[in-house]
């Protein structure tokens, strides 16, 4: 079965990472960009986590010790990223029992959510999954998508977001409004940039 791409608000939510090695660090970097709070528990924690504590002030905590069962209590999601299969399995089993979202880095059977390969341009986010069949394929497809994204798309997205309440207020009729959003977007796409006030007025007059 393929996996459903929920887009989840993880800001200020607590994520437990069991393990403090390279892969744990990569997963921590991924979720911190979306505002999550990260708790790392491991006997050995790689030094990059000290840099993360500085970069994301107050969002990263490390506990230098072995995992205990109660560490998973009240976590929004958990990442099992140790190099010990038995520990990863145990973490996963506890989470499955408690209905906590868990990603396990060494066995997809022990996951109930997966990390996609991610393209992020501001709030535009694309996630690629191969269903766990080939992370390399996911990575390579991600690179292609990254290269296909026009330069100003992030700027255009911010502008369209700011414009949205104005258009909603100006155009009551739903069909017309839909057409306006379509037209404005096409014009931005063609221009490769946001519209000037005159261009916007003209687009709205044409409706
Ligand atoms: C199931 C999943 C669970 C999860 O981690 O969420 C998982 C599992 C495993 N990965 C393994 C290996 C590698 N993973 C990568 C890379 C990425 N792995 C990612 C996701 C996922 N990896 C989930 C499935 C996603 C999907 O494909 O749908 C990406 C997309 C996102 C991320 O990790 O952030 C990220 C690309 C980031 C980017 O865009 O650059 C590379 C290549 C590289 O490092 O560049 C290699 C080495 C090559 C190889 O072995 O294929 C191993 C074997 C470990 C071993 O042999 O010991 C397992 C275990 C297993 O297969 O069961
Ligand atoms: N999902 C993915 O994308 C990938 C997953 N992997 C898998 O990830 C695993 C971890 O890789 P690395 O981070 O490179 O390993 P690493 O050797 O750098 O780190 C292992 C970490 O696990 C911790 N640990 C061991 N026992 C523990 C316990 N009882 N409680 C808490 N922490 C404990 C160690 O202290 C250390 O911090 C590998 O075994 C491999 O199977 C590898 C490549 C990609």
TrEMBL record:
Transmembrane segments: none annotated. It comes from the Bacteria. The keyword Aminoacyl-tRNA synthetase does not apply. Pathway: Porphyrin-containing compound metabolism; siroheme biosynthesis; sirohydrochlorin from precorrin-2: step 1/1. Residues 126-147 form the Siroheme synthase central domain. It catalyses: precorrin-2 + NAD(+) = sirohydrochlorin + NADH + 2 H(+). This is precorrin-2 dehydrogenase. It comes from Butyribacter intestini.
């Amino acid at each position: 079965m393929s996996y459903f791409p929920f887009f989840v608000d993880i800001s200020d939510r607590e994520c437990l990472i069991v393990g403090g090695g390279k892969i744990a660090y990569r997963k921590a970097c991924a979720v911190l960009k979306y505002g999550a709070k990260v708790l790392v528990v491991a006997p050995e924690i790689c030094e990059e986590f000290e840099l993360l504590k500085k970069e994301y002030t107050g969002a990263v905590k490390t506990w230098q010790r072995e995992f205990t069962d109660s560490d998973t209590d009240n976590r929004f999601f958990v990442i099992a990223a140790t190099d010990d299969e038995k520990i990863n399995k145990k973490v996963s089993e506890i989470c499955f029992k408690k209905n906590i979202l868990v990603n396990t880095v060494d066995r997809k059977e022990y996951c109930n959510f997966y990390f996609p390969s991610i393209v992020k341009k501001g709030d535009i986010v694309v996630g690629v999954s191969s269903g766990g069949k080939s992370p390399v394929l996911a990575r390579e497809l991600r690179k292609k998508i990254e290269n296909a994204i026009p330069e100003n798309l992030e700027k255009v997205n911010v502008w369209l977001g700011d414009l949205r309440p104005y258009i909603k207020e100006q155009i009551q009729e739903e069909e017309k409004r839909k057409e306006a959003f379509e037209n404005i977007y096409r014009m931005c796409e063609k221009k490769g940039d946001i519209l000037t006030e005159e261009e916007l007025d003209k687009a709205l007059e044409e409706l």
